[in-house]
Design goal:
heterodimer, A: alpha+beta, six-stranded mixed β-sheet, B: mainly alpha, 2 domains, 15 helices, 3% strand
Chain lengths: 399, 313
């Protein structure tokens, strides 16, 4: 907004196309592409040379801890932040220099940012009125019906609950049928139960309207529940991108292994590389893992297994790791055990409450797992990367 | 009908059950609002309501300072006073409205800049807005005599840029000087009441969540449209408060026209001042005061209705 005059001149040629793009957005805006996108604030690099293509019509999640650059990325797509370098385009159209109000993009803000002086109907109609749309009344009512607030049109935002305000913010953005809908931690201010409900709701609406959704969140469960594709961001870069199951089952970095769920990582050395199977040795014991689940070229690796993939046996067994239970946390559907291994490391194992007796601290156990569930990560990475981001401490912070 | 009513009202909360537990607290709390209101209400009663009643009664009296006054319900005083001083009356409202408009034009950008654009200079600028109050109203107004004098820089700028001709053309200046003209009076009024405009504007602008403007931009509103559709309506409480705080005292002011004007710029405040203190025609002075007050109340009520306070949060 600072250099409005020069920006205005630069963006003038595209404005006509942008307006046309807006009108036909629902029929085809194209993929959202970011090329070498960079944003620096002084010496701090918030977004670092980001390359990303978000296919049209997908539900895409940018997941990462606070300060990882995900909100900055979103704001650059919305035009509220100017990139230091790189380009953003939708389909064939470069929108890097387009003013925010000319972009075929709408945002659902974390704070909702509903206009307090306008009623719900006028809040939703705001974008349509600015563009001089026809049939505003019908479009607004349809959008309000979609978010199940048809009766609330004449209320003021202050008279609605947090969840209702959130849905108004969604209707206000969706009604414009943008090429890309940006959601900036839209559920962050809601309580857990409402959040779960809204997650399902959002997913339903996305399927119904078929717009490209880019959802920024620090909540891994939220990202996995809703998104087709998740990009895990860390320190301004994308660590890994893929479908929820793929990311969870095949983390390629320690950050992803720890940020998405939990992982047990044990230091190991590769002893033999077969075409299908990798043999490794950790603390004098030999293990194997599928060669395609090794994400390291080095022989020094972190040997990893997810806690729920471990089965806990009592007594001696030939296979597996011996250990002593040091802590038992009963969660309800499952019980989480901390097991100390002979060399002092503590790892986590989760067991479904299928009726088996709950084990007490001090009991000797043997941990076994299917070798197909093991994976290997490069040992040059920090084994604890991505661990310190609890859900609670991130509330209210921006990524 | 009146007899059972209090009984029913008293019986309702008692019958419900749970309120019984609250009785001690609500009993003690019942008097708190009255206690808090007492000093203010007593003050207004003694120093506003009583003098008002006195003024109203005086406007309906006849007599002279030598023979004494008595209430004769002589409504004719109002008619006589208004027909004699209607031009001063209308002039006061026009000057006050013009000064209010000018103060809004100057005060809004100023308040906007202080609220959003000056960063750490915010407090310094706010102090500067209030700084004129450190000198007396009279001295500040007298200073404008020097500022607008024919020897001063303002005069030569206005004269050389041809602005003087424009001011003459709109009859704000009727001779070859700036002083002792309607222009000077309006300038004085604008200057003196500018802080009363700026501060409420600042207070309401400062409260606006800047993220709402981002939302406006995101929803296809250009910066100018976002201002028109978001910032301006949200600053309406400040606009209403500021214009009232400027218009009301400006309409009754008698210092600016006295020090900066000429006999043709006389405002109603000056007339009332003269009738009370020099002519000693108390009924006429009281009738004019009362009319001015009622007129202002009517204008304010109409204005607040029109400004649409129901639009405000």
């Amino acid at each position: 907004m600072t250099d409005a005059s020069t920006e205005q001149v630069r963006s003038e040629p595209v404005s006509g196309r942008a307006a046309a793009g807006k009108a036909t957005a629902a029929h085809g805006g194209g993929d959202l592409q970011m090329r070498s996108l960079t944003k620096r604030f002084g010496t701090f690099t918030a977004v670092d040379d980001l390359d990303l293509v978000i296919p049209q019509g997908s539900f895409f999640a940018l997941l990462g801890p606070s300060g990882c650059g995900k909100t900055t990325t979103l704001r650059m797509v919305a035009g509220l932040e100017e990139p230091t370098a790189g380009t953003i385009s939708i389909g064939a159209e470069d929108i890097t220099a387009t003013r925010p109000y000319k972009r075929p993009v709408n945002t659902v803000f974390q704070s909702y940012a509903l206009f307090p002086h306008l009623d719900i109907f006028e809040n939703v109609a705001f974008g349509l009125r600015r563009r001089g749309s026809k049939n505003i009344k019908q479009q607004v009512n349809e959008a309000l019906e979609l978010v199940e607030l048809a009766q609330m049109g004449r209320r003021k935002p202050g008279q609605l609950s947090g969840g209702q305000q959130q849905r108004v913010a969604l209707a206000r953005a969706i009604v414009n049928r943008p090429s890309v809908l940006l959601l900036d931690e839209p559920l962050g201010a809601l309580d857990l139960k409402l959040r779960r409900q809204m997650q399902i709701e959002l997913k339903r609406i996305q399927t119904e309207v078929g717009l490209t959704f880019v959802h920024v969140t620090h909540d891994q469960e939220e990202a996995m529940t809703m998104a087709d594709t998740i990009a895990v961001m860390n320190q301004g870069r994308i660590e890994q991108m893929g479908g929820p199951t793929d990311l969870y089952e095949n983390p390629t970095t320690t950050f992803v292994a720890n940020f998405l769920g939990q992982s047990n990582l044990v230091r190991a050395k590769v002893t033999s590389r077969g075409s299908d199977v990798l043999e490794v040795e950790a603390e004098g014991q030999a293990f194997t893992l599928p060669a395609r689940r090794s994400f390291s070229d080095s022989d020094e690796i972190w040997f990893g297994v997810r806690p729920e993939k471990l089965s806990i046996g009592q007594g001696d067994a030939a296979e597996g790791l011996r250990g002593v239970i040091t802590d038992t946390s009963f969660i309800g559907v499952s019980t989480q055990y901390l097991v100390r291994l002979p060399w002092g490391q503590e790892i986590t194992a989760v067991r479904q409450n299928d009726g088996a007796p709950i084990l007490r601290p001090g009991e000797q156990v043997t941990l076994t797992w299917d070798p197909r569930h093991a994976f290997a990560l490069d040992a040059s990475q920090d084994a604890h990367a991505g661990e310190d981001f609890g859900e609670g401490e991130l509330l209210g912070s921006k990524g | 009908m009146s007899a059972p009513a209090p009984d029913t009202v008293a019986g309702l909360p008692g019958g419900a059950g749970p309120p019984v537990a609250e009785t001690p607290r609500s009993h003690r709390g019942r008097w708190t609002p009255y206690l808090l209101l007492f000093p203010g209400v007593a003050w207004l009663l003694v120093f506003f309501v009583v003098p008002m009643a006195f003024l109203a009664s005086q406007s309906l009296q006849q007599g002279s300072i030598e023979t004494g006054y008595s209430v004769t319900w002589h409504i004719q005083t109002y008619g006589d006073a208004l027909s004699a001083y209607s031009s001063q009356f209308i002039r006061s409202l026009v000057y006050a409205a013009t000064a209010t408009g000018l103060a809004l034009l100057i005060g809004y950008p100023l308040a906007y800049a202080i609220a959003f654009k000056v960063g750490r200079w915010k407090n310094v600028l706010l102090v500067l807005v209030i700084a004129p109050f450190f000198t007396s109203f009279l001295i500040r107004t007298l200073a404008w005599q020097t500022i607008l004098s024919t020897q001063g820089p303002v005069y030569s700028i206005v004269n050389h840029t041809g602005l003087l001709a424009v001011l003459k053309w709109v009859h704000l200046v009727n001779s070859d000087q700036l002083l002792s003209t309607p222009f000077a009076v309006i300038m004085g009024l604008t200057y003196n009441f500018l802080p009363f405009m700026t501060l409420p504007l600042y207070a309401s602008l400062e409260r606006i969540d800047m993220r709402l403007l981002e939302a406006g931009n995101d929803l296809y509103a250009s910066p100018f449209t976002a201002f028109r559709k978001v910032t301006w309506p949200l600053s309406m409480p400040g606009v209403v408060a500021g214009t009232l705080l400027t218009f009301i005292p400006a309409a009754g002011d008698y210092i600016n026209s006295k020090l900066l004007g000429n006999p043709d710029t006389t405002m109603i405040g000056q007339v009332i001042d003269g009738e009370f203190l020099r002519v000693l025609d108390y009924p006429t002075a009281a009738a004019l005061s009362f009319t001015l007050m009622v007129t202002i109340v009517i204008i304010v009520v109409a204005y607040i209705r029109r400004a649409g306070t129901e639009e405000l949060v």
